[in-house]
Each structure stands twice: as C-alpha cells, then as structure tokens.
Amino acid sequence: MAENTEPRIGVFVCHCGTNIAGSMSIDDVVNYAKTLPYVAVADQYQYMCSTPGQKKINDAIKEYNLTGVVVAACSPRLHEPTFRTATKEGGLNPFRFEMANIREQNSWVHMHGMWDEATQKAKDQVRMAVAKAAKLEDLVPKSVPVEKTAMVVGGGVAGMQAALDLASAGIKTYLIERTPTIGGRMSQLDKTFPTLDCSQCILTPKMVDVGRHPNIEMMTYTEVEKVEGYIGNFDVTLRKKARGVLTPVEAAAKGIVGGGCNGCGDCAAVCPVIKPNPFEMGMAPRKAIYIYHAQVMPLIYTVDFDSCVKCGLCVEACGEKKAIDLEMQDEFITVKVGTAVLATGYELFPVENKREWGYKQFDNVINALEFERLICASGPTGGHLVRPSDGKTPMKVGFVLCAGSRDNTGIGKPYCSRFCCMYSLKHAHQIMEKIPGAVAYLFYMDIRSFGKMYEEFYYRIQHEGAKFIRGRVANVLEDKETKNLHVFTEDTLLGRPVDVEVDLLVLAAAVQPNEGANELRKKFGVSASQDGWMLEAHPKLNPCGTTTAGVFLAGVCQGPKDIPDTVAQAEGAASAASIPIHMGEVELEPYFAMCIDELCAGCGMCVNLCPYSALSLGEKNGRTVMVVTEAKCKGCGTCGGFCPGGAIKMQHFTTPQIAAQIDAFFAGGEQ
Amino acid sequence: MADEWKPQILAIICNWCSYAGADLAGGARIQYPPTVRAIRVMCTGRVDMLFILKAFVEGADGVLVSGCHFGDCHYLEGNYKAAKRMFMIKNLLRNIGLDDRRFRMTFVSASEGAKWGMVMEDVTNTIKELGPSPIKEFKK
User: Fold this and answer.
1) ipTM summary value
2) Most buried one in A84, A312, A374, A432, CB count within 10 A?
3) Are A106 and B34 an interchain contact pair (Cβ–Cβ within 8 Å)?
C-alpha cells in the first residue's frame, strides 16, 4: 500500500454465537463503525474466526483496497494470530491488524441488563481500534536461528521423560537436577496405583536410559543461576555445586588414571558424621559423604559440606582413586539452549500447620511419603510397616484424606491435590495385603477416582474390606499409655459423631510447588497461577506452553497430577520444545525499539533503563545517538516510555498510535 | 443527573498480567461496571507519563495503569520503572490541583480475574465519588 494514501479500514464484528451478540446490539456497533473516519467497510459474521469469516476479511481487503483491518471479537491473546494470518492472506502486512476485545472485556463482563452500556462500550472499543489501525505500519518479523540444544530443569519422572524424548528426537539435551541423583519423588514411592507396579522397577530402567543416552548431558547437584536471551538463544548460567567428589571423567581430565568415584562406598563406611537421610524422610541415617539410596543415578557420592568436619578419613579410604576433594568449590558454567522444559515437581504441604491432626506432636501420626518409605522393601525398615513409637506392627491404620487439600481456612490449600485419594486407596490395599487381619479406615470427603481403571480400583479396595468413613477429621488425640490415636469426626452418612481408635494415622498431605520453584520460574519469566503453580499459556489449548516463548512445563510444577498425566505432559512438552529446534529458526514479533536519530540527544538514560542491555550509545553522522541491538530487544518499551525527547519509536506501540487511541476514546464525547 | 453520570476512565494495561487477568475475568463471567476502556501495551514500562497527562487533558475522569506484581514482570523490571513514574504523576496531579485519586496504578496478575473485577469496581466508585474531572470545564 502506498504510504501517502489515506487509510482505508475494514471493521468486522463477530457475534461469537450468542457470546457477544447475546449482550449487545451488533447491528448498532456495525452501523456506528461505518460512520467512523477512515472506515471503508463494516461487516458482521457469526464466527469471524471460522473459514467463511476469515474469507470475508480476505475478500474485503481486495475489494475495498484496505490498508488496515479491525476485528471486534474475543481477546487478541486468543485470536490475534488467526486474524493476522487472514490479513496476510488478503495481501496486507499481518501487522496491519488490530483487535477490539468485545468478548472477554465486554460482553462477558457486562451481561445482565447492561445491553446499552455494553453496546456503547463496544462502539468505544471499535473507535479506539480503528484509530490505532489507521496508524499501523508494515512490520517484518525477525527470524532468528535456533540453537539445536534443549534444557530440562528437574530430574523427576517428568524431566526424565522430557529429556529422553528430546534426546531420542536427536536433540542434545541438558538435564539439570539440583539433588545428587535423578529420580525425583517417584523413586521414593513403593507401589504405583492402580496397577500396583513397583515404582522402582519401572523407574530405574528409565534412570539408566537417561544416564547412558548419548544425547543427554545429565548435570546433577546443579542449579540454574541465571537465564538470559530469548527463544532459540537462551544463555543459561548453571551453578555446579561443589560435590567434593570427582566422577571418573573429571578425574581423567585431571590426569588421575583409573581414578574417580566408582560408588564403592568405602568413604561412607569410615565417615564419622551421621545425619538424617532426606530421601528416607529423615527416618534413616546417612553420612556426611553419602548417596541417597542404592539405585542413584549417577552412582557418585556427594559430600555434604554443611556437616563435613573435614577429618580426611574418606580421602584415606578412597586411596588411589583420589576421587575426593574436600576443597572443591562451586563452579559456574554457561550453556546455550534453544528451548527449555521446566519440571520442578512438588513437595508436601507442611501438614503440621494443621495442628488438629497432631503431626509432629504425636509419634504415630505420619505423612504419606513417610508411609511410602516405611512400606517400601528398600526403605529403612525393609518394608515391614511399624509404628514409630514402639516399632510394633500396626493392626488398625487410619488414613486422613484431603489433609490440607480442599481447605479454605487459609492454612491449607484450596485446590484438590488430585492423587491423594488414589494413593490412600493403594496404601489401604498394601496394609491389608502385608499385615493379615489389619484394618484400614479411610476418612474422606469424596473419593476422586477419575482416571483409567481408577474407579475399578476403588471398588476393589472396598471389596477387600477397607472401612470408608465420610467426614473431615475434626481432631486427633493420643492415648498417652498406648500411644494409640483417637480420631474424631462426624460420619456424615450416618449423621453421628464417631471416635475411631487406630494404631497409626497417615495424613494424605496436600502438595505444593517445590521449594525454589518460584525463584526458578521468575528466572525463566514464567508466571504463577493464583495457587502458586506455574502458569500454562492456555489451560486447554496450550497446557505445556508458557507466556515465555520457548519455555515449556511438564508435570506437577504446572499443577497436581498423577504419574500417567505427568508423563503424558512431559511428552507433550518435549514435543513442543522440539518444534522450534527442528524448524531451525523462529520468528520474533517485531516490536523492537528504534531510535529516531534526529530527535535523540544522546543522553543515554535509556541505556540504563534497558533490562536486557539491548541499548548502547554510538556515533552516527558525527553525533552520539542511541543504537538498538535488535536481537537483544524484547520490546517492553521501558525505554520508549521514558525517553525525554520522544526519540524512541516502539514498533506497533508507537506514541502516535497510543495517542490516537487516547484521542479516540474521548472523541466519543460525554455519554 | 448525578446518578446518570458515567465516568470516563482510561486504563493502560500490560499484555502479560493485567490484560490476561482482565481476559480471565471475562472467562469467569465476573461482572463489573462498564466504565473503563483499556489500551493494551506490552509492559507498563511503556507508559509515557505524557499518555496519562494527555488523557487527563482530553477529559478523562480517571486513569488506571495496571501491570504485573513486583518480581513477576515479563520484562524483569518494567513495572518497577513504571511505578516510579507513577509517583511523579500523582505528585504532579496534586500540584495542579487535581485529586490524585483520579490516577492509580494496580498490580493484577494473569491469574487474578476476580481481582480485576474488584479493581474495576473500586476505581469506578472512587471516580464516582470524585465526580467529573474539573478539566472538562475547560473543554466546554
């Protein structure tokens, strides 16, 4: 389109079925649009996003020789890409498109008895959009090459699956795990519902696959320190925490022939420092030089420098392998990756905050992960379930479901943690199977057994004889002599209060985002949901994506989910993360800052404002002016919002465009 | 007539948090007064103080700038820089004799649809209490 011709704008108003048309007069909005300056055509359709709707745009661009398109419909966050494509297909530059959000920000929020007000607001919104559309300019998206590597943060089952998929698709993948071993929560579990697969049996082979995959660079005991860059070109700085132990590869690099840790454990045998093992929920000891459990990956010991007394006995025991370096320091390395998958998982809600259930007050009240370790054959008791107070086998075991979930008191979590019902059913099965004559009491609100073969599993546990008592547990008291527990609740099906005496009480604690996940998401620019989990780009249509292009989510970090859903999402995230890498390049929205050299005084204030160091001062035609490095600019406009000389042009959000929108708002006059 | 008067309020809101929060309010069908017209920018950092002054000069009864919570800015720190400027705006409004409650900056995240509805209610009530902007008198 020639630059000096007057703008010719087409306005298209969408009914969205009755979503919009049910709350305002579309005819009035269209007729009003026809009266606006620059509007060459105004039309309406039931669903503008449909093929016939988009064709209307295509045809009108050609028929009326339009220079800009306005669609008044849903949110640009939903359908801007759709209509940009339609605009492009009509022969216009796709950035000649502007959207008026008359659904999410109008018809849906002004529904009842607001017909005239909603219609008036839609007119205002269309008028403002037309004003901007008249000033839109052709823009060309910038294509940038994508680094052919990916990063997965978190080495639980989600991260492992994502890394395996990416690596199997031929992409070099860094798997970052902050603890000394991959495996995550799943490696702490005994059995998995509803199939009763042994968790270790199905997980350990995966851990081994990860360890030996040629495309996976596994970095355990490592944390993300800093993230810079954008999709296709993230520079991630990693902190390799001082492990105090050299791997065989690291030892070889230092010239120690045949050296490095081989996992023999001679060091731990002589270490005099004893600490609780967090993998066993603190119920088993570990030394200051330790591995979590026998199946760790990689099988490399780690020195806990917080408790190490540096006596040097381990160094002696290690001998010729020379694997232990007690003076090791943290190392920082920076890797370049094209895309990233976050899979940081969960931790248990501190259920002691709900004081009425007595966790950490009474010996025989434990949480579900402690139960997993106590019933697990590789756990501290070799799989013999015992009560903490006296080591006796419990015959009556109570399970409190929704322990902190679905709790609106402000102490617990308002959401459903989704997998506690099912694992509690599994726990009930396990005690009835392992301890002949044992009785399981499940105190529940609702049993949510929604997955494949889950409801059937619930029936099975009912038939096996577990006792289900529908009621929230009000209080738990301990018998001081026997250390038994009295569970008080109202059986809401019988309508009467009950007092059940049990030997052991297991709290199916709510889950919450892992410690540190909040800091990590901020480094990657990922938003949080109201409940603290990481926010997906769209709950239904983009559940793995985030608002940061090139960063994806897998597993519980996005919201509570069981193992099948976690693995499915991990595969989805891996697939999504591999697309830009296989495409080889991505288009960035061309919202870069531009310097209008004649207006720039070279003061340099913008240079300090830019959070991405995209701006600098340089010489042009003998004057000092600001220079933009487009690849670094993300288009926030912080420089443009401040420049005292108005010398910075923020493309697609220029000052004349925004000023025109402000003018257009008030051009509607007193309402 | 006082009941009939509908304030004209301009909102300049960021794409990643407040605009998304406003969309979420729509998705959840949270009802609020139809008094506010929004302009979308990528970041509140883009908000030039002159935009706000221009809105008041043109006759806005109130102006709202809304962005991400501190520490949650999609562009790391644009909202901090915006917030700094917004204090200056409030100062300036006071100095020219305009009630500084006509201008406000809020922080509404992409998951706070209900909060967006509350902000809309609250801003509208405040402006209704203050009445039409005195600048409108000059425009007559």
Assistant:
1) 0.96
2) A374
3) yes
